[in-house]
Specification:
Elements lengths: L29 E7 L2 E7 L11 H9 L6 E7 L5 H9 L2 E7 L3 H14 L4 E4 L10 E6 L7 H12 L2 E12 L4 H10 L2 E9 L2 E8 L5
Parallel strand pairs: 3-4, 3-6, 4-5, 6-7
Antiparallel strand pairs: 1-2, 7-9, 8-9
Helix pairs in contact: 2-3
The structure holds S-adenosylmethionine (SAM).
S-adenosylmethionine (SAM) binds next to helix 2.
């Protein structure tokens, strides 16, 4: 497996990260705007939460390039941040239930408030343990937290991809210089079918499915 040239900085004790459960940065909410086809949303972001200045370019690439969500069933946004992916999916598929999962409590509060404001009442935001363990997802969408480090990221993806329903797909966006190609190679080595849907402005959008078992 190739090693990304620009590795994410190591996680060091005492520093602050967008994946801290309780961010130490004082709250300073600001509006960010998401435009996706007919959909125009004003969302509240905040310090201590990923992408607090503007909707992330990778998030936009995922929402623009991945297939539309299934019209119903359970959908997962893994690592919801303030909720741009979960809310966009929920607006596109109002009959589906969209689970927005994050470890950052400030992010989850923002996701709930943003979903309410957008009228996306089919979003349920919570900590990973709050998702019923028997739920299986028709689709998973994620701009995953690569900065937690490679092994924790692999463990996280293994945990949630195992919960794809039969025939379900996951759509992931990862920056090329943060290891998208080595992540794709690792997924393939774990017996997932991986297809590169788009490579745009340094981001790769991957479609991931369970490999059909040979008889
Ligand atoms: C790259 S950000 C994407 C945020 C948001 N979806 C967006 O597009 O703006 C990844 C998110 O994953 C969250 N995260 C980190 N570790 C996690 C874990 N173990 N389970 C769920 N989410 C996690 C982070 O807190 C962060 O909000």
């Amino acid at each position: 497996m190739s090693i990304p040239k620009n590795r994410p900085p190591p996680v060091t004790a005492g520093s602050s990260h967008y994946f801290d459960p309780k961010p130490v940065a004082p709250s300073k909410p600001r509006s960010v705007f998401l435009h996706l086809g007919e959909l125009a949303l004003e969302l509240q972001a905040d310090r201590g939460v990923f992408g607090s200045r503007a909707v992330d370019l990778g998030t936009l690439a995922l929402l623009r390039e991945a297939p539309a969500p299934p019209p119903d069933g359970e959908i997962l946004d893994l690592g919801s941040g303030y909720g741009p992916i979960a809310i966009a999916l929920a607006k596109q598929a109002p009959k589906a239930r969209v689970w927005a999962v994050d470890v950052n409590e400030r992010a989850l509060e923002l996701t709930r408030a943003n979903a309410r404001a957008a009228g996306a009442l089919n979003v349920t935001a919570g900590l990973p343990d709050e998702v019923p363990p028997d739920l299986r997802f028709a689709a998973i969408y994620s701009n995953p937290p690569v900065r937690i480090g490679k092994l924790p990221l692999h463990a996280l993806l293994q945990q949630w991809l195992a919960r794809l329903a039969p025939g379900g797909s996951a759509y992931l966006v990862v920056q090329r210089n943060l290891g998208s190609d080595s992540l794709a190679a690792w997924l393939a080595s774990e017996r997932y079918e991986v297809q590169r849907l788009k490579s745009k402005k340094g981001y790769r959008v991957l479609a991931v499915r369970k490999e059909a078992r040979k008889p």
